[in-house]
Amino acid sequence: MPNSEQAFVRFADVQKSYDGETLVVKNLNLDIARGEFLTMLGPSGSGKTTCLMMLAGFETATNGEIHLDGREINNVAPHKRDIGMVFQNYALFPHMTVAENLAFPLSVRRMAKAEIEERVKKALDMVQLGEMGNRRPAQLSGGQQQRVALARALVFEPRLVLMDEPLGALDKQLRETMQYEIKHIHENLQVTVVYVTHDQSEALTMSDRVAVFNDGVVQQLASPPMLYEKPDNAFVAQFIGENNRFVGTVKEAVNGHCTVEVDGRPIQALAVNIDGVGSKSTLSLRPERVVVDPDENRFPNVFDAKVLELIYLGDHIRARMAVCGTEEFIVKVPNASDHPTLERGNEVRVGWQVEDCRALDA
User: Fold this and answer.
1) Contact yes or no for 30/47 (Cβ under 8 A)
2) Which end of the chain, C or N, has fewer beta carbons within 10 A?
């Protein structure tokens, strides 16, 4: 976590309203370190894209300050911020060749012709399009066009690169390939990247840290493993990855642990974000943390379950079960595991550890 002196990008008490009444972004305080890959993740309308547009200079903050490398940039024109941009729709010039598209941001900066040619060649090689310089965008595939857009954003060696849903138009396999390519380019260049997406797997794959937005507020800011394993609240737990959710009443809370009654059954959990005994709480439990036919001496939470549905997914089997009053309880069973009882309609026992079950806000 960078402090304010180290922060390369800094949002200080930033608010944004389009109509003068409703705040789309509410009191954002966020520091981004030099060389960091930070993703703003959230559902549509959560405020993440608005934050990116304010940083780019295409939107103006209603209140607060935005700093880049120690300088306030609220009133600095977009083209003077030294920021590279990559959009979902590529925004390439169709009448120019690939090389001319890459040369354009260098030409407007009045660079020498020899340096432009050298930088264009270097950028094309970086995105593995060294032989494509004379083609026009219409002659390229979607993935190749996105590589050109990425190279154009990096060719003038900006201090900061902003990416707004850049892989949204690509198919699943190509999108995953581009995720790794962007991650590797970032690691090699050590450029600061702020990335916006609503795809949580994309955020987990690529980021150093992820800011999860909802309703104009950052719900949690953490590394991908922390977000997934230790969500701060029920929204983050539900938005990041697949999650089993129980709603119950806190019956006891001692030393960071609690007992929550769900459908008449006591479930032991970590007391992460609860209002105390007698309050409602949402329990969060990842499907891969559940064990079928557990050793009941080693698991404090063991319950009867009925197998309702089995889906074969190659490396694992996704089982939907009826447990503690819900019929949407998901268990991910590794395909190598031998569970002869795991048949549709069978009664089984399932269990999980206290540390894997988090008691969160209602």
Assistant:
1) no
2) N
What sign results for the dihedral spanned by CA atoms 250, 251, 257, 263?
Answer: negative
d(CA 215, CA 103): 40
pLDDT in tens, 262-305: 999 999 999 999 998 999 999 999 999 999 999 999 999 999 99
User: Can you tell me the distance from the alpha carbon of 257 to that of 9, in angstroms, rounded to the nearest whole number?
Assistant: 38
Structure tokens at 271: 């007391």
Residue 343 has pLDDT above 70, yes or no: yes
127-180 pLDDT, tens digit each: 888 888 899 999 988 888 888 988 888 888 888 999 998 888 778 888 888 888
Does the pTM exceed 0.85?
yes
The β-bridge partners of 246 are 283
Q: Using the CB atoms, write b or e for 118-144: b if 16+ within 10 Å.
A: ebbeebbebbebeebbeebbeebeebb
Beta bridge partners of 301: 352
* Residues 231, 45, 199: CA angle, nearest 5 degrees: 55
Q: How far apart are alpha carbons 271 and 264 in whole angstroms?
A: 19
Return the structure tokens found at 27: 């009191």
Q: What is the pLDDT of residue 4?
A: 47
Query: How far is C-alpha 171 from the chain's CA centre?
Result: 18
Backbone angles phi, psi at 25, to 5 degrees: -125, 130
Report the C-alpha gap between 82 and 273 in whole angstroms.
Answer: 41
Identify the three-state secondary structure at position 142.
Answer: helix
d(Cα 252, Cα 106) in Å, to the nearest integer?
65
How many alpha carbons lie under 13 Å from residue 204 in its C-beta half-sphere?
Answer: 12
Neighbours of 213 (CB within 10 A): 27
State which amino acid sits at residue 262. Answer: V
Q: Rounded distance, CA 319 to CA 330, Å?
A: 6
Q: Would you tell me how many other CB atoms lie within 10 Å of the CB of residue 297?
A: 7
In terms of Cα–Cα distance, which of 270, 281, 216 is closest to 46? 216
